[in-house]
Amino acid sequence: MSKVRVLVVDDSATMRGLITAALRRDPEIEVVGTAGDPLEAREAIKALNPDVITLDIEMPNMNGLDFLEKIMRLRPMPVVMVSTLTLAGAEATLQALELGAVDCIAKPANLASSSEVFAEMTLRVKSAARSSVRPRTTNHAPAPRRAGYRANGSLVAIGSSTGGVEALLQIISRFPENCPPTVLTQHMPATFTKSFAARLDRACGATVEEAYDGAPLDPGRIYLAPGGSTHLEVVRSGGHLRCRLREGDPVSGHRPSVDVLFKSVADATGAASLGVILTGMGRDGAQGLLAMRKAGAKTLGQDEATCVVYGMPRAAFELGAVERQLPLPALGEAILDQCSNLH
């Protein structure tokens, strides 16, 4: 198997050196070059034809977002964004993921945390090399209220990872203001989830916010699992469905975990729910979706052709957890159809 050829783009010589050294420790990766700004990077891309680019957001001459937009328009290729863990960094990273970046990783806050961060980077870079990259063409305008839409009381649970920002925006932008109560677990750093919830809220007719303990699961409410130290679960309390944030170890390699969310939905709602598994690396969500299906819930998976990484949906499909696989553009309407009294 040939090595993954990587171009490292960062205005900091120290950070270029750290990233390069970390990537070179993996025998499956070859760092073919580095660049200190987008102008150097443009020439390096032409000369070296890398498989993956790691790209800093804040750089001289042209910021990373502007450069990324040009890459995705003129020569789409896998890009992993390297961002600071700040609110501004989170906003910029979400824009990058919308523009077509495959993944993001936070710069280490200090040298003590750098080994863990850079170990994660090698995994993400190799995953990016296997991803499907296509130019972004979608405009996420809030959907008008679907005429005559009437929810049937079902709960919707959606899990996603790599490529999930764009996928969730496409799906949630179709939801009307009276959509089914919906819970989302997307793998992303803790600093990013509040900003992403706000971005989804702007794209959607319903109300989207970061989940909090005890949040009521009513029609028109969509909750995104906070990144970091807790899992998002659905529980029945006093006859009403609510969100619960529970501390615990990572499950299926993640916290929050899609498996934890789906299994809690299977227990709390049984057949009165719909599970959806979207693009992502790994297997998180497969066992949980199977539990939902065994409890009588409907289940959908994103198809291979429209996934950035066909990992999580593949694992769920091969396990028998997915009833139907659909292309991403069809999933929003399919979810509403399954959760409507009119379908």
Automatic annotation (TrEMBL):
<protein>
    <recommendedName>
        <fullName>Protein-glutamate methylesterase/protein-glutamine glutaminase</fullName>
        <ecNumber>3.1.1.61</ecNumber>
        <ecNumber>3.5.1.44</ecNumber>
    </recommendedName>
</protein>
<feature type="modified residue" description="4-aspartylphosphate">
    <location>
        <position position="56"/>
    </location>
</feature>
<dbReference type="InterPro" id="IPR001789">
    <property type="entry name" value="Sig_transdc_resp-reg_receiver"/>
</dbReference>
<dbReference type="Pfam" id="PF01339">
    <property type="entry name" value="CheB_methylest"/>
</dbReference>
<dbReference type="GO" id="GO:0000156">
    <property type="term" value="F:phosphorelay response regulator activity"/>
</dbReference>
<dbReference type="InterPro" id="IPR000673">
    <property type="entry name" value="Sig_transdc_resp-reg_Me-estase"/>
</dbReference>
<keyword id="KW-0378">Hydrolase</keyword>
<dbReference type="GO" id="GO:0005737">
    <property type="term" value="C:cytoplasm"/>
</dbReference>
<dbReference type="GO" id="GO:0008984">
    <property type="term" value="F:protein-glutamate methylesterase activity"/>
</dbReference>
<feature type="active site">
    <location>
        <position position="187"/>
    </location>
</feature>
<comment type="similarity">
    <text>Belongs to the CheB family.</text>
</comment>
<dbReference type="InterPro" id="IPR008248">
    <property type="entry name" value="CheB-like"/>
</dbReference>
<feature type="domain" description="Response regulatory">
    <location>
        <begin position="5"/>
        <end position="122"/>
    </location>
</feature>
<dbReference type="GO" id="GO:0006935">
    <property type="term" value="P:chemotaxis"/>
</dbReference>
<dbReference type="InterPro" id="IPR011006">
    <property type="entry name" value="CheY-like_superfamily"/>
</dbReference>
<feature type="active site">
    <location>
        <position position="284"/>
    </location>
</feature>
<dbReference type="InterPro" id="IPR035909">
    <property type="entry name" value="CheB_C"/>
</dbReference>
<feature type="active site">
    <location>
        <position position="161"/>
    </location>
</feature>
<keyword id="KW-0963">Cytoplasm</keyword>
<keyword id="KW-0597">Phosphoprotein</keyword>
<dbReference type="Pfam" id="PF00072">
    <property type="entry name" value="Response_reg"/>
</dbReference>
<feature type="domain" description="CheB-type methylesterase">
    <location>
        <begin position="149"/>
        <end position="336"/>
    </location>
</feature>
<keyword id="KW-0145">Chemotaxis</keyword>
<dbReference type="GO" id="GO:0050568">
    <property type="term" value="F:protein-glutamine glutaminase activity"/>
</dbReference>
<comment type="function">
    <text>Involved in chemotaxis. Part of a chemotaxis signal transduction system that modulates chemotaxis in response to various stimuli. Catalyzes the demethylation of specific methylglutamate residues introduced into the chemoreceptors (methyl-accepting chemotaxis proteins or MCP) by CheR. Also mediates the irreversible deamidation of specific glutamine residues to glutamic acid.</text>
</comment>
